[in-house]
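Continuing the batch. This is chain 6 of the set; chains 1 through 5 are on the previous pages. Same settings as before, nothing changed between runs. Recording input and output for traceability.
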Amino acid sequence: MRIIYDDEFVTKEETPHTIEQFIKQRTRWNQGFIQILFRGRWLKLPNLSQRLLALYVLILPEVQAFFTLMIPVSIVMFFFVKLPVWMAMFTFMPFYCFILAMFIDLAGLHEFVKVHNRQWSWREAGMLLIAFMPYQILLGIGAIRAVYRFLKGASNWEKTAHIGQHRSNIAKG
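Output for chain 6:
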């Protein structure tokens, strides 16, 4: 299987119109990843690199839920727990991953701008950085909900409400 991106074949997706709907969408997506992970069909992929890539993608909801839950723990530990330097540095691992993800998103924005022949905007980069933490928290909430729902055995899908926004924009154009 190959994945190819071509602007000609891009589909118009509707972004959830409320934060609640966005979290439900991400919960549903993450819960699907968790189900696929535990069914284990990805283990039958033909080579190791494909299995490792599948594992990386499918395990992200659990990792994201763990890191989100670690934020308040890290804050408490920062102010109230004295640790040896090496251990304190290790407890900041979620923070290091967070910073790495910010740089990856900035690189993605740079590539997007370049591919679409747009001018780089420091304003857009700044908005990405400002919105990054709140966005990651919303993704983390969705991941926590997905893990919780999976552990609880909830198999119903929380559908995302659609208001047809992407269709009305096409009709206007």
